[in-house]
TrEMBL record:
<feature type="repeat" description="ARM">
    <location>
        <begin position="985"/>
        <end position="1018"/>
    </location>
</feature>
<feature type="compositionally biased region" description="Acidic residues">
    <location>
        <begin position="444"/>
        <end position="462"/>
    </location>
</feature>
<feature type="region of interest" description="Disordered">
    <location>
        <begin position="357"/>
        <end position="471"/>
    </location>
</feature>
<dbReference type="InterPro" id="IPR011989">
    <property type="entry name" value="ARM-like"/>
</dbReference>
<dbReference type="Pfam" id="PF00514">
    <property type="entry name" value="Arm"/>
</dbReference>
<feature type="compositionally biased region" description="Basic residues">
    <location>
        <begin position="428"/>
        <end position="439"/>
    </location>
</feature>
<dbReference type="InterPro" id="IPR016024">
    <property type="entry name" value="ARM-type_fold"/>
</dbReference>
<feature type="compositionally biased region" description="Basic and acidic residues">
    <location>
        <begin position="376"/>
        <end position="393"/>
    </location>
</feature>
<protein>
    <recommendedName>
        <fullName>Armadillo repeat-containing protein 4</fullName>
    </recommendedName>
</protein>
<feature type="repeat" description="ARM">
    <location>
        <begin position="778"/>
        <end position="820"/>
    </location>
</feature>
<dbReference type="InterPro" id="IPR023231">
    <property type="entry name" value="GSKIP_dom_sf"/>
</dbReference>
<feature type="repeat" description="ARM">
    <location>
        <begin position="561"/>
        <end position="603"/>
    </location>
</feature>
<feature type="repeat" description="ARM">
    <location>
        <begin position="903"/>
        <end position="945"/>
    </location>
</feature>
<dbReference type="InterPro" id="IPR000225">
    <property type="entry name" value="Armadillo"/>
</dbReference>
<feature type="repeat" description="ARM">
    <location>
        <begin position="736"/>
        <end position="761"/>
    </location>
</feature>
<feature type="repeat" description="ARM">
    <location>
        <begin position="654"/>
        <end position="696"/>
    </location>
</feature>
């Protein structure tokens, strides 16, 4: 949430990034922040016009910040140029000008002491207003204090500064009035009072802005997920099960709710007066390693309070930060709790297998879970031997009972629990596992798996490949075995020599990699990382970096706790060590568990810290080393960023501005991991917003012209993901990004680059302004040429781009002339769901032109579209139905064509039972076109289209309303359908459609009501529903169709009323 730089209210909700250990934090990139920053930009941009006197009010202290505006960009009367700097002639005092903008190396520093100059700087910043206002607010955490003085600084508690200031002004005015009465005029005092009045007015203006920001924040905050009494009870109950007297087995000594135990009907335990503040309950926790903790469970989260006072009354005052989960708070306050959670050394509970357990398993959602059969805590060798001896005795008992972790333990999220079926059990029996590979990483409740949708899971089940006999092992295997012995038993010198000798082997060869693992070399290499000898650490990391490219080695390193040690090394002052550790983490963090381990042990913050290196043009050994450290950090973050939770952790750690800074580097080796990380993170809206507002689009476009195919591919992929927003699409065009994207279509051999480039063109083509430029670049002809002999990931984007470009009528002809219609129709026979959605849209757009429709009809394209209505994917169904609409409109003898599809009309009517709104809207649109033919209308009426359409009339979706009303209007033209619609209760809900803000809904609804009003009973129903007044307004519409339908409906109602009157008097 954006900090309330203008007042008290929002400051309590401020969230700043923790870059640099919390100092110099940056405002987070969130949608709410963007809205609030835009509000402040609008406020500053028009300030001088609204408040001419206040804009010239001189601040008590200047607002100073690093600006993106060049001194040359500022030109205003009263400014003089001093050696390239711009400084105002007017001054607040002898040494302080009202405005200055000075060059400071590669940056510019701005200092302003009036709102007038602030407004000028903002206007000069052009499209970087967001960056400018963000930099100003981050550098001046309480600008009101700078502007109006410390008396108006933001304070905790009640702020009476305005009232005191008003009293002060009132007293001075009274004193001045007395002096005038005594003929003792005081001009200076009069001017001082006028200035204070101006300050007061300024404060009230800022207060009004603060209220506006507060209202915006509250609207967003109320949408956030909140704690509930059920959630609180669940967490406390779980932890109670894990608490007890034994420090070696239990996480806490005691945990319970504080108070008299009374539970209100809403589930809260807090007293009613505190429930108004969002309090749910109060929890008292006694950890083994500290004093009693008193915790408030509030709807906004868990936080510490000051506990009961001497009289036993709770002191509700908040202490410290709020946490989303109780476990997270306790981990932060108790080292013992954290240690026990990390070790997971809890006694197991024997539980009967019952229906409740089975039900829990069925309901478990496995979308974001690791594909393991379940966690098994570590056991000592002695325990394993005892289990082996007792195996025969316990065999019968195991048939009835199963040794399992406690249900509460599972609910806490400490294990990924699922009941393996017989096939999975058989696989587990066949799989060989190394007894030394036991995980050290806990599965925390807050850290359940959540990975990117693009992530490949090919490594989730690594296959063990061991030679069954020693006969085929190469000589390197035995040589490495000897070296490992030296590593284990040698002194420091022997260890270093052994490490150097080991590096002489071809470590890229799988035999050598697995040889190191099989003879216990991995354990030794990882143990060397805990030594104090830098050379040993470097030698070990160089070997680990090479062999960790192997899937099995990665998992072994993670199992042996190597990642935790490498994360610690990231804090080492030796830059070579940090580089090697980060690069090894980049190799290991290719699978879910490893990425989670890095996050849980603070690796994300440390890796983000590595990115903070200066970008300098001149090269030096020190600068090169710093750049290499940053590159290594970016590589590791690239691997880690495949996890959604890691992306969030990176954002909170302040990675975005650092990545933006590195993006300006001229070093290609630096740019590839930086852009790779950005394109991976661009799947999140907060990152897309940041990429746009931090000016990164310009750098991405510039790097599209790089000589490196890999860099071009990542830049195009980032634009592909970011171009979901119109602002980004406009920036790509403004910075000249469309031309290089089209030129990349020539590189047909590189399929990954081609997929990224075509994806970016697809998304950019959503904006009509970009379509014009694509026409000039002859992009359509090139895209059509890619419709053959390309992989599906390229075809999806190519067809998507053609579909967007074909929305412009001239482009439909270009698609036909380029020979694009036949390959598009051929793609309708595919099975890829995303491709089918895009190709149906493209065919539908092309069918808007009659000449194209002739070709589509000859190729049997309409029949193929109709067959896609049977597809199980609702997106494909909807897209096919939308495509059918222009086909029916533009086909010759469309009625006969539709009837020729056996079972086609019955199929499309049956889709009205769908739960998918887009499917319903598209099918209604298709039915409206089908019903133009009287014979087809008769057939769909027999299939029960009237009651099905009537059941949909209570919808509130305007898109569905529009096409539903159109379908009803068309269907009224057969038999007794008008009467049937009235009998099915479709008339009164249609009247509510007239309250919609969409004029298209009004038009189709008026047509439907006009048709229905031809039945007297329907006239009575719609008159009772209040149809006349809104229709009277629509008679005056600029839309002639709406006018005519509204007037016709009113005319029918009036004729019925006149007929009734005539019958009564005759």
């Amino acid at each position: 949430v954006y900090t309330s730089v203008m007042g008290q209210a929002l400051q309590r909700a401020a969230q700043w990034t923790s870059a640099k250990g919390g100092s110099g934090g940056k405002l987070e990139f969130t949608k709410l922040n963007e809205e609030l920053l835009n509000s402040i930009i609008q406020y500053v941009d028009g300030f001088g016009a609204k408040y001419a006197d206040e804009s010239k009010l001189v601040f008590k202290k200047p607002l100073t910040w690093q600006t993106t505006v060049s001194p040359d960009a500022i030109s205003a009367p009263g400014l003089e140029d001093r050696g390239g700097d711009k400084i105002s002639e007017a001054k607040a005092d002898k040494d302080q000008p009202l405005f200055s903008i000075k060059r400071d190396g590669s940056d510019n520093e701005c200092s302003a002491m009036t709102m007038e100059y602030c407004e000028q700087v903002l206007r000069a910043s052009g499209d970087k207003k967001m960056i400018e206002i963000r930099a100003c607010l981050e550098a001046n955490r309480d600008p009101v204090a700078n502007m109006l003085g410390e008396r108006f600084a933001t304070v905790e508690g009640d702020d009476n500064s305005i009232f005191r200031f008003i009293e002060e002004i009132t007293k001075e005015i009274e004193q001045l009035a007395k002096q005038h009465a005594e003929n003792e005029g005081n001009t200076e005092k009069q001017e001082e009072i006028e200035e204070k009045k101006l300050v007061l007015k300024m404060r009230l203006i800022l207060l009004r802005l603060d209220q506006q920001l507060l209202n915006q924040s509250i609207a967003q905050i109320t949408k956030d997920v909140r704690l509930t009494p059920i959630m609180v009870d669940g967490e406390v109950t779980i932890l109670q099960e894990l608490s007890g007297d034994d420090e070696r087995k239990h996480v806490l000594e005691t945990i319970d709710f504080w108070g008299d135990g009374y539970i209100f009907k809403n589930g809260c335990r807090a007293p009613p007066q505190r429930q108004l503040h969002g309090d749910i309950a109060y929890i008292e926790v006694r950890p083994f390693d500290g004093n009693m903790l008193y915790i408030t469970a509030n709807t906004s989260g868990y936080y510490l309070n000051k506990g009961p006072d001497n009289r036993g009354d709770m002191n509700y005052e908040k202490e410290g930060d709020a946490y989303r989960e109780l476990v997270t708070l306790l981990k932060d306050k108790s080292a013992h709790f954290t240690e026990m959670i990390d070790k997971q050394e809890f006694h197991l509970k024997v539980q009967e297998k019952d229906d409740y357990m089975d039900a829990r398993r069925v309901e478990e959602d496995d979308d974001d879970r690791e594909s393991t059969a379940g966690y098994r805590p570590d056991r000592s060798k002695q325990k394993a031997e005892e289990d082996s001896k007792d195996k025969g005795q316990k065999q019968k008992a195991q048939k009835k009972k199963k040794l399992e972790p406690s249900l509460k333990w599972k609910a806490l999220g400490m294990e990924e629990y699922q009941e393996p079926d017989k096939r999975e059990t058989q696989k587990l029996k066949k799989k060989k596992t190394s007894p030394r590979m036991k995980t050290k990483t806990p599965v925390d409740a807050e850290d359940s798996f959540s990975e990117s949708s693009t992530e490949s899971e090919e490594e989730e089940e690594a296959v063990e490949r061991r030679s069954e006999t020693n006969a085929d092992l190469p000589s390197e295997y035995w040589q490495i075995q000897k070296l490992v012995k030296y590593l284990k038993g040698g002194n420091q010198t022997a260890t270093i020599i052994a490490l150097c000798s080991m590096r002489d082997f071809n470590l890229a060869q799988e035999t050598c990699q697995l040889a190191i693992r099989d003879v216990g070399g991995l354990e030794v290499l990882i143990n060397l990382l805990d030594t104090e000898e830098v050379k040993c650490k470097i030698g070990s990391l160089k070997i680990l970096k090479e062999i960790s490219r192997n899937t099995q080695i990665r998992r072994a390193i993670a199992d042996l706790g190597g990642l935790q040690t490498m994360v610690k090394i990231l804090r080492d002052p030796d830059k070579d060590l940090k580089c090697l550790a980060a690069e090894t983490i980049a190799n290991v963090a290719k699978f879910r568990r490893a990425r989670r381990t890095v996050r849980q042990h603070g690796g994300i913050k440390k890796l983000v810290g590595l990115l903070d290196c200066p970008i300098v043009s001149a090269t030096s050994p020190e600068a090169d080393k710093d750049a290499e450290v940053a590159r290594s950090g970016a590589l590791a973050l690239w691997s880690c960023s495949k996890s959604k939770k890691n992306k969030e952790a990176m954002r909170k750690a302040g990675a975005i501005p650092l990545l933006a800074k590195l993006l300006k580097s001229p070093n290609e080796n630096m740019l590839i991991p930086v852009v790779g990380t950005l394109q991976e993170c661009a799947s999140e809206p907060s990152y897309r917003l940041a990429i746009r507002t931090e000016g990164m689009i310009e750098d991405l476009v510039k790097n599209l012209k790089s000589q490196s195919d890999e860099l071009q591919m990542h830049c195009a992929s980032a634009i592909f993901k970011c171009a979901e927003e119109k602002e980004t699409r406009d920036l790509v065009r403004q910075y000249g990004g469309l031309d290089p994207l089209v030129s990349l279509l020539q590189k047909t051999e590189n399929k990954e680059l081609l997929a990224a480039a075509t994806g970016a063109i697809w998304k950019c083509a959503i904006s009509p302004e970009n379509v014009t430029r694509f026409q000039e670049l002859r992009a359509i002809e090139q895209l059509v040429g890619l419709l053959n002999d390309q992989p599906e990931e390229v075809l999806v984007n190519v067809v998507g781009g053609l579909g967007e470009l074909a929305k412009d009528p001239p482009n439909r002809m270009l698609v036909r002339k380029a020979g694009g219609i036949p390959p598009l129709v051929n793609l309708l026979t595919g099975t890829n769901q995303a491709l089918l959605v895009n190709v149906t849209r493209a065919v539908g757009q092309c069918a808007e032109e009659q000449d194209n429709m002739v070709i589509i009809d000859k190729l049997d394209g309409v029949r193929l579209l109709w067959s896609l209505l049977k597809n199980q994917n609702p997106d494909v169904q909807a897209s096919a139905a939308w495509a059918i609409c222009p086909c029916i409109e533009n086909a010759k003898d469309a009625g006969e064509m539709v009837r020729s599809f056996v079972g086609g009309l019955e199929l499309i009517v049956s889709l009205l039972k769908s739960d998918h709104r887009e499917v319903l809207a598209s099918v209604c649109a298709a039915i409206a076109n089908i019903a133009k033919d009287e014979e087809n209308l008769a057939v769909i009426t027999d299939h029960g289209v009237v009651p099905m359409l009537a059941r949909l009339t209570n919808t509130v979706d305007d898109k569905l309303r529009r096409h539903l009303a159109e379908a009803i209007a068309r269907c009224c033209n057969w038999g007794n359908n008008r009467t049937a619609f009235g009998r099915e209760g479709a008339v009164a809900p249609l009247v509510k459609y007239l309250k919609s803000q969409d004029e298209n809904v009004h038009r189709s609804t008026a047509r439907a009501l006009y048709q229905l009003s031809k039945n007297p009973e329907n006239c009575i129903t719609m008159h009772e529903a209040g149809v006349v007044q809104p229709l009277m307004k629509m008679v005056g519409s600029q839309d002639e169709d709406l006018q005519e339908a509204s007037a016709g409906c009113i005319g029918n109602i009036r004729r019925l009323a006149l007929a009734n009157e005539k019958a009564r008097y005759s």
